[in-house]
Design brief:
single chain; 733 residues; mainly beta; Maltoporin, Chain A; 22-stranded antiparallel barrel; five-stranded mixed β-sheet; 3 helices; 42 strands; 57% strand
């Protein structure tokens, strides 16, 4: 494994000359154009292809990005199909398929909104850029926390490719390959990339009475991408891409009684490879899409068009109460729950269409401008089921949601002097949603009327960058972001217990962020240091109040929330053979709403004030969920050259996040412990022949902690993967 993000800036020592600097300046496209990172007035971190290949060598999904860059967390209660991103503490723990998040994922310039699209594997990519803070001008709605931007390796005329195969414990197989080159030189190029990841079921279900799966946590995950780059003239190019994914595996494995009451420790006798479930568990996902990117250079300006269609479907079923035995027994009874709390969700159809047009000025003059138009359309249907203890259907319901969004934007920079550059951008966005929920079995009110929401907002950013020296820039940035209104009707399934439940409707969320930073190259280009300090304030923060005595979910708004902190990135190459990196962040978040209350687990140890009238928990001044205050990572790579073309290397990396709340309220049992993950990799590279062989260990300390929970009365939770290890072979041509 390799540490953090900063190795993305490192040049391979074998490709450098004696006169070249030890570290190169990384080029990013955070503003839709290639720029040196130090010149971009945004806190952006780039992970290059080499770093990403190493981090995913054990078949890890996109959650591997958690804690790999400052202020970034990624988690999921659905396993490999539903990542939730948090930047600077700002995110959304809502787990429904129509949820919207304040962190957007942009894959090859295509915005992917639905979580099953955000989970597309990262393979054969040029880099991943994490843009921290609101990106409400160039990337638009649903980016008040930031953007995770993934760029695939593009086709070119050079015939090249690679084959990468790793094999590890749990019969883990990770195969990636790519090939590309010219079909018609200087006119038509292609690149084909494939991924196959497999793991055996390694968690045994000890429930002898269950008729369902006895072994869990295995998967087969396959993805592919085909790109065709057509260059009919020197001023026109068109990139056509097709991609698809198929996943067959298990959903998240929930574990009853995994937490020791009154603490956040794992319960005595816990075994990571055993569960006791009485329900079924499976997960099947399929996605495919295509997009066309056209660039036409008209001389003074370039017109860019990005047209995309994405389709997805999924079936997922899990025993969400983890086996349903309770300690203490629920509601004063002496045995297990009467209901299995086994649920199944499926998306029979997800369709997303996007169209973006950008017009940008050319040349290296003092003035640069880009503006354009963005259109987004999505149709989503979700079918949900809950089951009785005998396996019969207790609740059957569905949700449909149609979304339309338009945006117009313009962004400009002006180089006032050779040292000072000013920038400004503005975007107008409008969103509308039509939402319907119907319940057919087990519900008080079977059919609900279609609801409609409509909202618009104007977001902006202002920036200033000053070159203190040729190797040091300071910048300041004020930016705003916007999250469209949200709708939810899942609580219709609980009407049989508590009467008609209202649909959840949240107002639009708006964020204002203030940021100052320093980006520098030091010690004759053998060290890079980036520093950032920020503060943000969000009005009408959208939150998901999960669980409580009704075991339902409500979408709510907090009047306000604040966040503040700092970020540090440092890398140092004292000698050609040694590269040291470290990065970290401190993120303070706080809910500010004295009237806000939420439900709670009936038997957990709540540490917040409880309203004596309602029995709910007051959450004013609580931190946001899944928002650790500290994120730190570091790495060290040492190379022993055998000759000018061969080297033996050793690499270790470590990532750390501090404690975090799983829910909006604070409870001893649902405060996740700090997590320290380390890795080690030892390998041999023959640069001349393009061959590499390595052995690796991930989670070398075998740290297993509760990383998420369901606040039922039986302290249900789920954990991270234990230690994995294996060998990897790679051949480049």
């Amino acid at each position: 494994m390799t540490g953090g993000a900063t190795p993305a800036r490192a040049q391979n020592a074998a490709t450098q000359t004696a006169a070249a600097p030890a570290l190169e300046q990384i080029v990013v496209t955070a503003e839709h154009k290639p720029e040196y990172e130090k010149d971009v007035p945004i806190a952006v971190t780039s992970l290059n292809a080499q770093t990403l290949d190493v981090l995913t060598s054990s078949g890890d999904d996109i959650r591997f990005l958690a804690s790999r860059v400052p202020s970034l967390n990624v988690e999921s209660s659905f396993g490999r199909t539903y990542p939730r991103f948090y930047i600077r503490g700002l995110g959304n723990s809502d787990f429904t398929y129509n949820a919207q998040q304040p962190v957007s994922v942009v894959y090859d310039d295509v915005v992917v909104e639905n979580p099953i699209l955000k989970a597309f594997p990262i393979f054969d990519v040029q880099d991943v850029e994490v843009l921290r803070g609101p990106q409400g001008t160039l990337f638009g709605r649903n980016t008040p926390a930031g953007v995770v931007k993934v760029d695939s390796k593009r086709p070119n005329d050079d015939y090249s490719g690679f084959v990468d195969l790793s094999y590890g414990n749990y019969n883990t197989l990770d195969f990636t390959a790519a090939v590309g080159g010219a079909i018609i030189p200087n006119k038509l190029d292609f690149r084909l990339s494939v991924l196959e990841e497999r793991r055996d079921d390694w968690v045994h279900n000890t429930n002898a009475a269950t008729a369902y799966n006895k072994n869990l946590e295995g998967y087969t995950d396959t993805a592919a991408r085909l790109q065709l780059l057509f260059k009919p003239t020197d001023t026109l190019d068109a990139l056509l891409e097709f991609d698809g994914r198929s996943l067959d595996g298990t959903a998240r494995v929930f574990r009853a009684n995994v937490i020791q009451p009154g603490t956040n420790n794992l319960a005595p006798g816990f075994k990571v490879d055993q569960v006791n479930l009485d329900g079924d568990n499976y997960q099947n996902l399929g996605t495919w899409g295509t997009h066309l990117t056209i660039n036409n250079d008209f001389g003074p300006v370039t017109l860019t068009s990005v047209s995309a269609y994405e389709h997805g479907s999924i079936r997922s079923r899990g025993d969400i109460d983890g086996g349903n035995f309770s300690v203490p027994p629920p509601l004063g009874t002496s045995g297990p729950n009467l209901f299995t709390d086994e649920t199944s969700d499926s998306v029979p159809g997800l369709d997303q269409i996007t169209q973006e047009l950008r017009l940008s000025t050319n040349g290296d003059g003092r003035f640069f401008n880009q503006g354009g138009f963005f259109y987004f359309h999505e149709y989503l249907r979700v079918d949900s089921f809950s089951y009785n203890a005998d396996g019969s259907t207790a609740v059957s319901m569905n949700q449909t949601q149609g979304t339309e969004s338009f945006g117009v934007f313009d962004s400009a920079t002006y180089k006032v002097t050779d040292d000072l550059t000013l920038g400004a951008g503005v975007r107008f966005s409008t969103d509308s949603k039509d939402y319907n929920v119907g319940c057919f079995i087990g519900c008080f009110n079977p059919i609900r009327p279609t609801l409609h929401t409509s909202d618009s907002d104007t977001t902006f950013d202002l920036t200033a960058t000053y070159a203190v020296t040729p190797d040091m820039n300071v910048y300041g940035r004020i930016a705003t972001g916007y999250l469209a209104p949200a709708l939810d009707g899942r609580n219709v399934e609980f009407d049989g217990f508590s009467g008609p439940a209202p649909l959840s409707i949240t107002k639009a969320e708006t964020t204002t962020s203030y940021e100052v930073g320093l980006k520098s190259s030091l010690l004759n280009h053998r060290a890079n240091l980036n520093l950032t300090a920020y503060a943000w304030d969000t009005d009408n923060l959208q939150l998901a109040a999960v669980g409580g005595s009704s075991q339902g979910t409500n979408l709510i708004n907090a009047k306000s929330a604040i966040g503040e902190g700092f970020e540090v990135e440092f890398e140092y190459k004292p000698i050609d053979e040694l590269l040291l990196t470290t990065s970290g962040s401190y993120n303070f978040t706080q809910i500010q709403d004295s009237s806000l209350e939420v439900g709670r687990c009936p038997f957990c140890t709540v540490t917040n004030p409880i309203d004596p009238v309602t029995g709910n928990v007051k959450i004013n001044h609580n931190p946001l969920p899944n928002a650790p205050r500290w994120v730190v990572n570091g790495s060290a790579r040492y190379s022993i050259p055998m000759n000018k073309d061969n080297e033996i290397y050793g690499l270790t990396d470590w990532s750390y996040r501090s404690t975090e709340n799983f829910f909006l309220y604070s409870a001893k049992e649902f405060t996740g412990q700090s997590l320290l993950l380390g890795g080690l990799r030892i390998g041999y590279i023959d640069h001349a022949r393009g061959f590499e062989v390595a052995g690796y260990v991930h989670n070398i300390l075998d740290e297993v902690k509760v990383t998420g929970a369901v606040d039922f009365d039986n302290l249900t939770g789920f954990v991270n993967d234990p230690r994995t290890y294996g060998v990897e072979l790679r051949y480049k041509f």
